[in-house]
Amino acid sequence: xxxxxxxxxxxxxxxxxxxxxxxxxxxxxxxxxxxxxxxxxxxxxxxxxxxxxxxxxxxxxxxxxxxxxxxxxxxxxxxxxxxxxxxxxxxxxxxxxxxxxxxxxxxxxxxxxxxxxxxxxxxxxxxxxxxxxxxxxxxxxxxxxxxxxxxxxxxxxxxxxxxxxxxxxxxxxxxxxxxxxxxxxxxxxxxxxxxxxxxxxxxxxxxxxxxxxxxxxxxxxxxxxxxxxxxxxxxxxxxxxxxxxxxxxxxxxxxxxxxxxxxxxxxxxxxxxxxxxxxxxxxxxxxxxxxxxxxxxxxxxxxxxxxxxxxxxxxxxxxxxxxxxxxxxxxxxxxxxxxxxxxxxxxxxxxxxxxxxxxxxxxxxxxxxxxxxxxxxxxxxxxxxxxxxxxxxxxxxxxxxxxxxxxxxxxxxxxxxxxxxxxxxxxxxxxxxxxxxxxxxxxxxxxxxxxxxxxxxxx
Length: 459
Fold this sequence. Notes:
Shape: elongated
Distance between the termini: 60 Å
Radius of gyration: 31 Å
């Protein structure tokens, strides 16, 4: 008898979600929305705060209905209990560079990974042509306007739920490679936080994520409008006091202005891009993206009005004159000169960094690396020359070897400070092998070759 009771209970539990899934239909949701809208169209009912609260809550349920019973990482077997079996399926479908099995439902396409868990989904139809997010926010605001004291708590809870829904939707869209849609979701998640009834702390990262994704969309689809949209949200983030840890917001904003090359205000956009990069460099002199952006903007074909690239160096040198012990500024100066292929100045700058911070293994590595790049560049020039004598060729070869030799003490120092840095060991092995015929170099090569093999094996 107990067995029968448990069997009936199990069937009941299985049937309830299935029945719920069957109610998620276009007609049913449209009917619910029509009824909800009718309540706020009624003048008498619309005078009550609870009417607007219930309208917002019902609109949220309608908006979230198609995906309310699924989540990323959910086993597909559980998903089928909640939303039923798919109408059809396609194996070995690639989405945003990942392999999935695609399951097609009336509302969406569900993408399931090799682990049989939901990876992401793509909505194939909307609940309504109406802007439900906007309607929800407006109704909550109206409820608050009519009775702030009683409504503040339920309105705050409702807005938090809407924010979380938009945040999740953005993440799902991003995983599906729908960068513009994800950017829009993040922007709206932030907009929800600007509502009067939101009592939490606004998350400025939503604006940063939105701007970044607009840039990605513009670069991958050549949609120039996304650059303009990105500039709006990133400027808002910056003006609100947001900066990411590395200062990349300045670089992405630069891309937004620089990318609008079909704009009638191209010169103004370039000036704004330059201004942002200069500001970013002063705050984050170690950010290579900012340095690369400045080099690019000064050397682009239509940037004649921006001034000479030496202006950039002058700005950095002026800052160093005021603060000669600014390690990061010397670092940035070295990266700028390296980008300009002025290896002597980049090495000199990094040697200054090494003086200020002698125990930084990475700085020692970069000095050695810059010497190596300089020597390789000299070798390229030798290969282009038409020598008239062996003496002239040998003289140039000796100059190259002297630069290779100069790299070794810095690579050795880097190894001493951090013997587990594979790239440094590999570089030390390479340069000592180039000089293997010179006295004392073969033992060094053997030392670094052994260390390289051990580190590589440990990886």
